[in-house]
Amino acid sequence: MTIQKAFVSAQDVAARAGVSRSAVSRTFTPGKSVSAETRAKVLAAADALGYHVNHLARGLMRNESGIVCLIVSDLGTPYRSNLVNALTQQLQDAGKIAMLINTDRSDESVGLALRQAIRYRADASIVVSGMPDKSIVKLCLRNGLRLVLINRDDEHDGTLRINLDDAKAAENAVTAFARAGCKHLALINSTAGTPSLMAREAGFIAAAAARDLPVMVEHHGHTSYASGRLMAQRLLTRPTRPDGVFCVTDLLACGFMDTARREFHLDIPKDLCVIGFDDIEQASWISYNITTFAQPIDGIAANAVAWLRGDAEQTERTSLRLHADMVWRGSVRGG
Amino acid sequence: MTIQKAFVSAQDVAARAGVSRSAVSRTFTPGKSVSAETRAKVLAAADALGYHVNHLARGLMRNESGIVCLIVSDLGTPYRSNLVNALTQQLQDAGKIAMLINTDRSDESVGLALRQAIRYRADASIVVSGMPDKSIVKLCLRNGLRLVLINRDDEHDGTLRINLDDAKAAENAVTAFARAGCKHLALINSTAGTPSLMAREAGFIAAAAARDLPVMVEHHGHTSYASGRLMAQRLLTRPTRPDGVFCVTDLLACGFMDTARREFHLDIPKDLCVIGFDDIEQASWISYNITTFAQPIDGIAANAVAWLRGDAEQTERTSLRLHADMVWRGSVRGG
DNA sequence: TCAGCTTTTGCAAGCGTGTGCAATCGTCAC
DNA sequence: GTGACGATTGCACACGCTTGCAAAAGCTGA
Known about the structure:
DNA-binding; 12 strands; 434 Repressor (Amino-terminal Domain); four-stranded parallel sheet
């Protein structure tokens, strides 16, 4: 194999096709005027040479790279990986491409990620984890980087904020427990306390108070299986044992249920009702069968992408609140 | 807010700092010679203006974008999302950035993904799902796009192939079953049959044959929880019920175990031993507690990234076979 | 002070593309 | 035959950056 230039350029294609370089460029730009004959010659030459438009150069010229950054931590987590999956899929369908940046959930590392997005002149970035601080957000907007915040908070203007109706869901959870005859409610949550988790907590406590039901609360670590186990041990050794527990995440619920059953020999839902949140795949597995709230993952992704495409009616709405449907399964009595 | 140019360029910074544009460029290129004084002026101006090097332009000049494409299907799957997580993390640490492309696992869509990688002049792409055909691989190599194939096959020259020692693992599974006194072995697998899954199957059958143990085999759908359930129904209604089942994936094992317990009231490991593969998080959950083989995810990622960086000794090895350690848990008797 | 050296600096070319502008071509009606 | 008009085409500049080259500046020792 002879040594050759790594990538073939439009110039090369033009030479082979016997046309000007602009003709090549126009052939690959939808909506530009090229005669059928020229187009055919160009396409033939491009195919023979293995030509592919250089998107770096195109992005440089158009000032629009087609890149959208996804900023996310703990991609291994079921909920997050499903959301990222839906987002990349829908971005691809919209002609964009996803760039993935890992963060530990510190604000600082989110800032670093956003700077990286700016460097690649991303058209937008979508923040799934962590909270960018005000100055970074301003920097992004100033640089023409559009921002979507998913289940973050509702503070930053100029961005699209997509949140769930966490308070409403929490209220429904209380209602379900009340109907099941639960008298002693409890809630377990992480210590991190993202705005959306805190909204679930506050909503649950408020709704319970409205019905004069007491709520025990535990906080620990991240929203993981291990945390769920640990909080189960704490909660189930209290003097009065709760009989209705709202886990702000299905992962917590899985750990909680396993410990309640194996270590405390409790029957779910007879002795203890459990409600989770997210509707991850595992919640539907036979061993768990958790009553939970479904994150409208496709809906979230669709709204984000629609806003990015600048669809007329969507562009104006900068704050969206989606509903999380309750999924009735077997971890609550009398569904 | 006044209308202004979207992005600030090196020119703008140079003007404000009172130096030439090249000085700005050199300031942001490690190893280039700039006086401390100039560097300070440049950094001050860059900070004030919010300047960020344009990586599209830089990539265009250097002919090296810093982008690495990850080609993957079903990111929602625990094993894949953990692998992608490790890869993006380690790529970031190496100064690269991950681009994520979703495929259905058809060869065709892998081809499309690779063309996308070429268009963005990615430095490399890492194929986690699907199998690119020979002509596309050639096209990539000709375009200077390096290729890493993870748990694919071992055919393509010029690429880095990272595989597990599936045969050895399968042999260890047979040994474990034999020690537990299992007489009737079985294996469940997807119909897709990627090379690595087929290697596990072939290895298991061969090792069982060497011990004169019969093996029942079932194939169905993807390597999912649902498939595991369905194959359990098929396998456990056979005239002779297996007492040692190798599930080529933990997800299959979860579905299999749930069905074996709830629908056939079998005790694991008393009536039935189960071994999985991957060591996903769920395999360690109390409800499953599956004896399995750990994918050396960090090792895979580390090897891939090291090869991409062109580390001297690594560059020569183009085919790697890593070991999957057995993780002893409770789904096999007498661990 | 000055030659000889190293470090720093600015200039300008070039990376591969998109696109405004003017020139060219073909078509058609008169 | 001619003029008008629309579709195509090529030229040349621009995008923001890197880098070779040569000039300038700083430093050393005699």
